[in-house]
Specification:
Layout lengths: L2 H17 L1 E7 L3 H12 L4 E4 L10 E4 L2 E4 L10 H9 L6 E3 L3 E6 L2 E6 L3 H10 L11 H19 L12 H5 L5 H16 L8 H12 L6 E3 L4 H10 L5 E4 L3 E7 L2 E6 L4 E9 L3 H7 L5 H8 L6 E8 L11 E3 L10 E6 L11 E7 L1 H7 L4 H15 L7 E9 L6 H5 L13 E3 L8 H18 L5
Parallel strand pairs: 1-2, 1-12, 2-9, 6-14, 12-18
Antiparallel strand pairs: 3-4, 5-8, 6-7, 10-11, 11-12, 13-16, 13-17, 14-15, 15-16
Helix pairs in contact: 2-9, 2-15, 3-15, 5-8
Length: about 475
Amino acid sequence: MPADDRRKAKGSKERAEMKEFWDVAIIGGGVGGLSAARKCAKAGLKTILFEADRIGGRAGSVNRKKYIIDMGAVYIMIPGKHFMNATKELGLEDRRIEVNKKITYRAQGEWHELDFSSYLALIKSMSRFRLIPLRTKADPRVVKFLLNCVRVIREFKEDYRSIRKYEDKSAKEVLLNYFDEKTCETVFEPLAETFLFSRLEETSAGAFMGAIGCFMDQANKIYYFKKGTGELADAMEKDLKGSTVKIRREKITKVSRKEDGFELAAADGKTIRSKTAICAIPLPYLSQIYPGLPEEYLKKINKIQYPSIISVFCGLKEPVKTFGESHIVCIPEEESESIRFISENTNKSDKLVPDGKGLLHIFIPPSKSKTLFKRPGKEISRMVKKELERLLPGIGKTIEFVEIIRWKHGLRAPTLGSLRLEIEEGTPVKGLFICGDSIMLGLDAVINSGETAAELAGKELKAGL
């Protein structure tokens, strides 16, 4: 078909879609939105999904010189039943790679490998490197703390809302019952900043204990995909082909409630109508595109903290031998003000890099990211290279490229307890539902939130979803 005819056919198809009265309109094509779309497709609901950028959102991946670069999520820390069911349905079971639970720490100017594979292994490795006082080795309180973390993560995997039982205290308050101040700063502070984007005193106890539980629960596996987390989103998008779901690469700028449903306006001025709508984007955007939200609901949304996060990838000519088998490297503030966390993927146990080469994934702490977010990439690159060279002399010669990823909205752990938005409550607007990582961190919970939002939309339509 000639190019002009193809353009006309495409335009005609888009006009027809705009005239449709859809059962469900989904705003956002991340894992939450895609999970909602898959649930709608199974129920035969006529659904349209809008994504302004790339499908997968912060669970997307791109290639750079054969290296796999994740746009946000790297590890699946909590592979609960929703994640496991989705990967089984999508045929991704053999694409998951289990990550070992060893973490290399920088402390007192040296590198130390901590073994999180068991309680005794962790306590032994911490005391060996004097990251905790030697007397702690036999302290039953420490084992009790680790057991409590395992209980929290198991409850969380059954129902992510269970975390709210532990939100009355900060992580720092709880940790000081078991460890001294120095151990908190050296061992646990970098973990909080790495996985929860906040300091211990700002982090809910439940969120932090859940993070520790991911490592300490021997039944809990930590995964990533052979070609990055984008494999999950790509498989979800492929699964929707030929279904009742249509995907449009367009930005929605305004949502209005009408008598019979909703009207969504795209950036190009076109509008579509739907009976229900699901918002699968960061909630501050919802308040922008739906200006009629009640004041009380806006106050809840405004409690959410979305710090700017900078993530840096360095492609290496060879793996970092210093890190041994560790995939995760934590660097406390006293050792580096610029780098808080390094994830190192090598050709030893995965296919994320070419043979014989390595990849460093670096998180810059939120406080530093805030000041650097709008700075030129070259400036950030120079800073990271300089800091890496100080920590790992000679590494500069092995760096092939530096890729900088900026997250405008990185969800912080304190909001997990303070947000108090239930998916089941929907929103104050009849027929408008929410899902995604605005509700809860972790791909398992995000998948669950998307499926739940779709179920609620189905009930609203009396479709028996």
